[in-house]
């Protein structure tokens, strides 16, 4: 019998939708006459294994490629951690703590022993004093200091030998006891060999990391393809998601290219995703084309639920899914607080909130949010802190009158939601974010959509007041939705995918496609100059910082119609490293908003993190850099080194090294190290000089200006083609040393009209691009333009709600 193998190496428990997806697809395969097999993580419990489907627990890692340890292995790792962290010192501290604890405990709980304990403590105190006095007397004995010194030397040597001996023993124990973790590829190879696959078998992997997709590729190319089963891989994350962009290995585009060039695709490996938007974005990367598949779940579970009468009972509002930031769990306390007085407290509505953490201890603000929700009575706001069984999950869904999904619209702009899929199938009204995949699946007859999370309470109230109409509409819609997202429909798509791919490749798609915010069209003129903005982006988030020159530059580029690309990053230590993801999610919508407001043709953007500083450029002092890092001091040289090692994605590296950009604009000369790193030789460089950085670092570090820093700064400025100063005195100061850039302009002279600024920018671009410059007409009648600036620009420039500009038209 042909096998249909579902690989779900992250399947460890009931967390998330792994279990439902794997089981529903396996059952559909059984209905099609296949022998279904589910291959899970090695810690998947026996109690959750279904009776009618073979389950093999094999993988050591999850889809993040993190080792997943059993309880026994976890205990071993804890023991090894103890060995590595000075166990004798820890034991000593523990003994002292226990002695102090029990003295205090007996003192409080055994009043009859109080006098005895006081006597013991007093005697010990006096004994210590006597010993100290005797030690003082010993110092008057001849040779006592010498003998005491010799004793300390000998004792120090003994301790040193014991420490070395202890470390050697610890290293041997650690090596002996550390659990061996097999890679995804190793486990895959071993388990497939054990089940004796054939070329007629199908393998479906619905949750996988990008590096693990690369391992599947390497696994296949090393083998006789005529004997291999066909792999079906589902990719659900956006192509500019950090987990995709910064995945280790060759990267997603290179994987696709290799699969295409080696002819693995489409015969032996095929790729899928579950939204039309993601189809377009993935298909833009290479010749490999993805297909759309439905979102499966066990629909019979909905039919098996017990219907409970809700007459004369509070309206039941439910939040389903793990308590995670991207699912908006941290917004629930404010939603509950807004509804409490008029709706929850008088028992008009009640809430049930699934509140199990996706990782131990919870993420970010989630633990505090759950604590805030626990302040409410359980009869009115019920929290479910453990992952639910499938029966309990679907029963709760059946009992809900509506579901609230306060999801992050950016995280789910193209991603699907299993909770929404099941809610629509159950015929439940929902509250979802407007600018997201969720918002595109509903209309105003069966859902209420919000733009900002503070609108959710009023959206809840609106559905409460019109619940019968919303419920009827949702139930009518559910029939078609159930058919569309059935596991049988998914299986049919997988099994017919090879023929579909070949037919699709005959036709060519010439419509514009968005790629990582890049618009590609065959009709785009090749003569439009490409401008790369390299931007330190902290000012976009920090309310106290103003940058009107950046606004002027965007306005100019938008009006001229240049093709603009953006590289964005932070320069603040507190936003780097582990804090990069919050920075990414905060700055992303701000970039979207500000570029749209000025109609800038933003073709592609990269928001990047810092790599470790493995390369020290410009012959800078390595020891000095390390000292500054340890002392947490910033300097021009340190930032130059770290900017040189910025984590530039591979597609941008290729554009830089092939000199694809006509003009590169820097808002800090520190970023010139990126140009030097990738040997960009043919692009013109404009740099904004807001202030002399050597001076700023001197002020911040309470020291004099470092002359070496200043000379290095001037040397880099001298390599630019044009400089834009904010102040006349800065221009004149730098002009004493810098003389190569042919054009230096002032962006913020007093009473400088925008038309005059545009004229200056026309001069800059004409000098750099000659007849390819797309100039802005600054002569003719005066035209008043009113900009409805949003909050971000209002805060930055101190402008009123509508700001008028008078320019030449």
Overall mean pLDDT score? 83
Radius of gyration (CA) equals 33 Å
Q: From the structure provided, what is the oligomeric state, counting identical versus distinct chains?
A: single chain
Give the total of beta strands. 24
Helix content: 40-55%
From the helix content, strand content and strand pairing, which structural class follows?
Answer: alpha/beta
What portion of residues belong to β-strands? 5-15%
Stretches where pLDDT is under 50 for at least 5 consecutive residues are 506-525, 787-809
Outline type:
globular
Strand order of the largest sheet: 3-2-1-4-5-6-7
Number of helices: 31
- Profile the largest sheet: 7 strands, parallel
The rounded distance between the terminal residues' Cα atoms is 76 Å
Explain what this protein looks like in three dimensions.
Helices cover 45% and strands 15% of the residues. The N and C termini lie far apart (76 Å). It has 31 helices and 24 strands. Helix 1 packs across helix 19 (487-495), helix 2 (71-84) runs antiparallel to helix 5 and helix 7 runs parallel beside helix 9 (252-261). It is α/β, with parallel strands linked by helices. The strands form 5 sheets. The chain has a 7-stranded parallel sheet with strand order 3-2-1-4-5-6-7, with helices on both faces. It has a 7-stranded parallel sheet with strand order 18-17-16-19-20-21-22. Strands 10-9-8-11-12-13 form a 6-stranded parallel sheet, sandwiched between helices.
């Amino acid at each position: 019998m042909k096998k249909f193998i579902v690989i779900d190496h992250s399947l460890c428990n009931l967390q998330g939708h792994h279990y439902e997806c794997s089981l529903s697809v396996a059952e559909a395969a059984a209905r099609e006459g296949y022998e279904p097999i589910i291959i899970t993580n090695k810690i998947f419990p026996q109690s959750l294994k279904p009776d009618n489907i073979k389950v093999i627990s094999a993988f050591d890692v999850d889809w993040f490629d993190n080792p997943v340890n059993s309880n026994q292995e976890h205990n071993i790792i804890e023991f090894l951690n103890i060995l590595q962290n000075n166990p004798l010192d820890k034991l000593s501290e523990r003994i002292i703590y226990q002695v102090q604890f029990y003295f205090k405990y007996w003192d409080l709980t055994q009043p009859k022993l109080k006098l005895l304990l006081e006597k013991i403590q007093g005697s010990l105190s006096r004994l210590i004093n006597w010993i100290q006095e005797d030690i003082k007397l010993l110092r008057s004995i001849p040779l006592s200091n010498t003998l005491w010194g010799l004793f300390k030397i000998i004792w120090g040597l003994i301790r040193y030998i014991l420490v070395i001996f202890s470390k050697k023993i610890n290293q041997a124990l650690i090596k002996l006891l550390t659990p061996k973790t097999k890679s995804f590829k190793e486990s895959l190879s071993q388990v497939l060999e054990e089940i004796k696959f054939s070329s007629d078998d199908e393998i479906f992997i619905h949750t996988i990391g990008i590096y693990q997709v690369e391992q599947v590729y390497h696994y296949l190319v090393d083998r006789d393809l005529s004997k291999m089963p066909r792999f079906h891989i589902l990719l659900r994350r956006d192509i500019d998601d950090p987990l995709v962009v910064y995945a280790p290995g060759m990267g997603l585009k290179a994987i696709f290219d290799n699969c295409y060039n080696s002819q693995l695709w489409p015969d032996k490996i095929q790729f899928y995703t579950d939204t039309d938007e993601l189809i377009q974005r993935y298909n833009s990367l290479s010749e490999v084309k993805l297909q759309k598949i439905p979102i499966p779940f066990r629909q019979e579970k909905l039919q098996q639920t017990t219907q409970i009468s809700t007459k004369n009972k509070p309206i039941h509002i439910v939040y389903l899914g793990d308590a995670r930031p991207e699912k908006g769990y941290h917004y629930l306390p404010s939603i509950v607080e807004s509804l409490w007085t008029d709706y929850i407290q008088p028992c008009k509505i009640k809430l049930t909130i699934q509140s199990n953490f996706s990782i131990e201890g919870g993420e970010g603000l989630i633990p505090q949010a759950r604590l805030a929700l626990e302040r409410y009575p359980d009869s009115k706001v019920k929290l479910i802190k453990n992952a639910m069984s499938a029966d309990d999950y679907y029963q709760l869904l059946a009992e809900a009158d509506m579901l609230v999904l306060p999801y992050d619209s950016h995280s789910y702009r193209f991603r699907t939601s299993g909770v929404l899929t099941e809610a629509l199938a159950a015929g439940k009204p929902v509250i979802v974010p407007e600018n997201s995949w969720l918002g595109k699946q509903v209309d105003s007859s069966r859902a209420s959509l919000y733009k900002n999370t503070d609108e959710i309470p009023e959206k809840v109230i609106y559905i409460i007041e019109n619940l019968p109409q919303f419920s009827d509409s949702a139930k009518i819609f559910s029939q078609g939705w159930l058919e569309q997202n059935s596991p049988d429909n998914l299986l049919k798509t997988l099994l017919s995918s090879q023929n579909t791919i070949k037919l699709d490749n005959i036709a060519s798609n010439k419509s514009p496609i968005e790629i990582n915010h890049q618009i590609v069209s065959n009709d785009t003129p090749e003569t439009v100059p490409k401008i790369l903005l390299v931007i330190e982006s902290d000012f976009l988030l920090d309310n106290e910082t103003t940058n009107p020159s950046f606004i002027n530059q965007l306005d100019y580029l938008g009006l001229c119609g240049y093709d603009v690309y953006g590289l964005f990053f932070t320069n603040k230590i507190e936003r780097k490293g582990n804090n990069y993801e919050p920075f990414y999610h905060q700055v992303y919508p701000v970039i979207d908003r500000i570029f749209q407001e000025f109609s800038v043709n933003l073709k592609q953007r990269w928001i990047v993190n810092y790599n470790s500083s493995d390369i020290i450029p410009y012959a800078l002092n390595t020891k000095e850099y390390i000292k500054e890092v340890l002392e947490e001091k910033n300097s021009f040289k340190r930032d130059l080194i770290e900017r040189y090692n910025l984590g530039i994605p591979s597609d941008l590296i290729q554009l830089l090294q092939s000199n694809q950009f006509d003009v590169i604009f820097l808002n800090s000369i520190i970023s010139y190290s990126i140009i030097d790193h990738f040997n960009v030789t043919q692009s013109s460089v404009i740099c904004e000089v807001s202030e002399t950085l050597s001076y700023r670092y001197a002020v911040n570090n309470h020291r004099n200006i470092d002359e070496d820093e200043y000379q290095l700064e001037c040397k880099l400025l001298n390599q630019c083609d044009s400089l834009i100063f904010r102040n006349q005195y800065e221009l004149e100061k730098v002009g004493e040393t810098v003389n190569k850039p042919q054009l230096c302009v002032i962006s913020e002279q007093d009473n400088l009209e925008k038309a005059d600024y545009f004229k200056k920018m026309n001069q800059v671009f004409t000098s750099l691009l000659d007849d390819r410059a797309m100039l802005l007409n600054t002569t003719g009648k005066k035209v008043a333009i009113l900009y409805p600036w949003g909050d971000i620009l209002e805060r930055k420039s101190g402008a009123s709600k509508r700001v008028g500009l008078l320019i030449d038209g």
